[in-house]
DNA sequence: CCTACCGATCGGTAGG
DNA sequence: CCTACCGATCGGTAGG
């Protein structure tokens, strides 16, 4: 991306994200995609090798965004509660900034061929591990309840930040940071009035 | 279902749930479906009117299960925390008992034709409303924090119980009730050690 | 980037 | 429930 103008390939990927997220991978034809870009179906193959390459690229970029946002947080010294909050802020930010790719990511990765499929499940495990680690550190530090199950706690946090792809609409009253903060407040302090 | 044996139509719907959840609606051909049932593609049309009828029926049945489980709880007199817990138990139970239909429901409803599509969005709103109502009652009763936003709180609860379709595996250590209880404990009491 | 085309496969139907 | 078939559309390629 040395150009200020997006390359044709980038345009194809952007449009593919939009169409795949709206209609699904299999329900989007290469002719649909080409038409949206003002070209003929066959012309796409001057820029890409095939349909699956588009899906792989979209999914890879999305997972790389999560990686960059989250893993750099590992060595940041913050109290556990603040660290979890910051992770959630970054996580929701990635979802919000990439609503379409995120939707494709969550819905269409099952349609990848075995090797790309395996990479995604491996990636998913690494994200689970990141959050479990964060929870365990918080328990060990005495900040989080000792009776928490790190695995289930990680699932709960991931539910909150991932599910946002189904309802969040950019440009609304709440920005991604507000959403993450609201969720973090509720999760950390609980819904019930303290006894 | 006066028969103890499932009708051919029921078998078709069951198999369609499995295939649609594994491969997606559009990536499942009617010949795939027929083959799984030991028949020819054209033979399906003696039992159903078309492919979309299958999707509509799967989605309708799933939403009816949620309705039955949740709305009957409206008039049950329980403390707000226990009522939310019970709603989550029932919600996760429906997801766990119908992992395949639930997956189809969450992933494929976008592919419905306009009228069926509108019914699903309407249904989704009614589930949102159910949880918001429950939260609001809890706030008014003084059981939940006054600073909660019922809308965001409902999203958080729904995230937890819905996202289970991506990771829950029946037959594991935790039953659906355990999952819901663990989530409810964390949500109600919070992750942090009380100050 | 287009035209023209490939074989394969799609959902669905007719007639039995 | 099967055989045989319909028109439409699919992802992708050849040659320019």
UniProtKB/TrEMBL annotation, chains A, B:
DNA-binding region(s) in UniProt: 29-48
UniProt entry tagged with the keyword Acetylation: no
PROSITE patterns to which the protein is assigned, alphabetical: HTH_TETR_2
Signal peptide region: none
Keywords of this entry: DNA-binding, Repressor, Transcription, Transcription regulation
InterPro entries linked: Homeodomain-like_sf, HTH-type_TetR-like_transc_reg, HTH_TetR, KstR2_TetR_C, Tet_transcr_reg_TetR-rel_C_sf
GO molecular function, one term: transcription cis-regulatory region binding
A Pfam cross-reference name: TetR_N
Domain HTH tetR-type: 6-66
Protein name per Swiss-Prot or TrEMBL: AcrR family transcriptional regulator
């Amino acid at each position: 991306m040395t150009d200020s103008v997006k390359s044709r390939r980038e345009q194809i990927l952007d449009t593919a994200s939009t169409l795949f997220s709206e209609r699904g991978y299999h329900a989007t034809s290469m002719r649909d995609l080409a038409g949206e870009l003002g070209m003929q179906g066959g012309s796409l193959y001057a820029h890409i090798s095939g349909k699956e390459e588009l899906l792989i690229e979209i999914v890879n970029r999305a997972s790389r965004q999560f990686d960059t946002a989250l893993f750099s947080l590992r060595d940041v010294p913050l109290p556990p509660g603040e660290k979890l909050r910051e992770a959630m802020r970054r996580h929701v930010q990635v979802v919000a900034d990439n609503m379409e790719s995120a939707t494709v990511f969550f819905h269409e990765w099952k349609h990848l061929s075995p090797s790309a499929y395996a990479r995604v499940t491996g990636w998913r495990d690494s994200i689970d591990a990141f959050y479990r680690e964060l929870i365990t550190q918080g328990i060990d530090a005495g900040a989080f309840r000792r009776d928490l199950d790190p695995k289930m706690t990680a699932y709960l946090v991931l539910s909150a930040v991932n599910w946002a792809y189904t309802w969040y609409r950019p440009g609304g009253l709440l920005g991604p940071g507000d959403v993450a903060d609201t969720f973090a407040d509720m999760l950390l302090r609980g819904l019930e009035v303290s006894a």
